[in-house]
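Tutorial, part two.
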Amino acid sequence: MTIGIIVYSYTNNTLTIAKQLEEVLIEKGFNVDLESIKAFNENPNNTNIVLSNLPNLKRYDTIIFASCVRGFDCAPIFKTYMNTLKTLKEKRCAGFVSQYFPWDFLGGTQSLKRLNELVEKKEGTFFPLKSIHVKSKQKDQQISELIAKCVDWIQS
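Running the prediction step on this input gives:
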């Protein structure tokens, strides 16, 4: 099984979490690649998004998507990337988001729902993992829960 972790991270919080997940999955014996989505202009207020790095998903059986929350939704650069994909048919997909605010209802819940919609639109199946609150005192516990849930999902 080859696992791809596809991440968009503006402030590196989401990327840091994705790297922790990658490390644990590799320790457990999985073949894992972490790839970042990038745009030529990373300004979060940019409305003319041109992507500079498009991870190719063909080699992955299992894909874990990760995005930061922006405006109570997945980041626009992440959504732009997802819209470039042709299909996720026959791919097992999961995802997580990171957000600044301390409650899921302030973007995390909506962003996980958006991830589900974006994956299903491309004929994939989606398993929501977790919303991580990067400024929370419970952040490390949340990341541990995310990793455990992801490992259980992969092994199921």
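Helices lie at 13-27, 76-84, 108-121, 139-155. In part three we will examine how such features are distributed along the chain.
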